[in-house]
Specification:
Length: about 250
C-alpha cells in the first residue's frame, strides 16, 4: 500500500476520517475531501492527509477533486466514495429539493468520481474503488426514501463498474454497514424519535438496533479495516461484492 494515491470523500469525520487514518497508516497518500473546510483541514493536518474542499453535489467539484489529486500526485489508485447525508421524513412530506440534493451527492457523485478516475487506474492496470454503501442498499426502512433509493442505485453502480473494470485490474466493491457510531447517526436520533413518536433514548434500542442480532453500534474503525483489506492484494479477486457489516441484520 506504500505510496498508493487515495481519495476519500466525506473525510472530515466519522467513517471517512477513520478510513483516511487507516490508509495513511498503511503508507498511502490520501486526499481527504469534505464540505466542512475547518474540520477537514484540522483533521488532515492531524493525521498527515491532504484536504480538498468539495461540495460533491456539484459536478464541478467532482472533476476538480480528481484534477487536484492527479496534479499533486500524478494519478489515483484508490477511490473511496463515502460522502453522504441522511434526511428522515414520510414520502408525502419529503422536500423535492432535498431529494435532488441527496441523489446528486450519494449516487451521481460516486458515478462522476469513478468516471474521472477510471482512465488513470486503467493505465496502471490497477485500481480499487470502494463505495461506502449501507444495509439500506440491500434492505428498506420507512421514512428514508431518498437515502435508500441512492444506496440501492449505488449497489447497481458497484456491480456494473466491477464488470467493466475486471479486465483492467480495477476492482469495485461496496461495504454495507448497519448503524455506525458517527455524527450522521447522532443527528438521526431526534428525527427518528419525532417520526416514530417515541422518546429519544429509545431510538437506538427500538429502531436502530431492532433488526440487528449483535446489539451494538459499529465503530468507524471497523469499516476502515474492511477498506484496507479490499485494497490489499489478498482481495485482488474480489469485485462486484456487497460486504455486509450489519450485526446479522440481513441474515434473517
Amino acid at each position: 500500500m506504500k505510496n498508493k494515491i487515495a481519495v476519500v470523500t466525506g473525510a472530515a469525520s466519522g467513517i471517512g476520517l477513520a478510513i483516511s487514518e487507516k490508509l495513511i497508516s498503511s503508507g498511502c497518500k490520501v486526499v481527504m475531501a469534505d464540505i466542512n473546510k475547518e474540520k477537514g483541514e484540522q483533521e488532515a493536518k492531524r493525521i498527515g492527509g491532504n484536504f480538498f474542499y468539495a461540495d460533491l453535489s456539484e459536478r464541478k467539484y467532482c472533476k476538480d477533486l480528481i484534477g487536484f489529486t492527479v496534479k499533486k500526485f500524478g494519478g489515483i489508485d484508490i477511490l473511496v466514495n463515502n460522502a453522504g447525508i441522511q434526511y428522515v421524513s414520510p414520502v408525502e412530506d419529503f422536500p423535492e429539493d432535498k431529494w435532488d440534493f441527496m441523489i446528486r451527492l450519494m449516487l451521481t457523485a460516486p458515478f462522476l468520481l469513478t468516471k474521472y478516475s477510471w482512465n488513470y487506474m486503467k493505465s496502471k492496470k490497477w485500481g480499487r474503488i470502494i463505495n461506502i454503501n449501507s444495509v439500506h442498499g440491500l434492505r428498506a426502512s420507512e421514512f428514508k426514501s431518498a437515502y435508500i433509493s441512492a444506496k440501492h442505485g449505488l449497489s447497481g453502480l458497484t456491480k456494473t463498474t466491477a464488470l467493466e473494470g475486471a479486465k483492467y485490474g480495477i476492482t469495485v466493491n461496496s461495504i454495507c454497514p448497519a448503524y455506525v457510531r458517527t455524527p450522521l447517526v447522532e443527528k438521526q436520533i431526534d428525527a427518528q424519535a419525532k417520526n416514530h413518536g417515541i422518546p429519544r433514548e429509545k431510538v437506538i434500542e427500538e429502531i436502530m438496533l431492532k433488526k440487528a442480532y449483535i446489539k451494538r453500534l459499529i465503530e468507524p474503525s471497523e469499516i476502515g479495516d474492511m477498506v484496507l483489506f479490499l485494497c490489499s492484494e489478498n482481495a485482488s479477486c474480489i469485485t462486484g461484492s456487497m460486504f455486509t457489516i450489519d450485526c446479522g441484520w440481513t441474515a434473517s
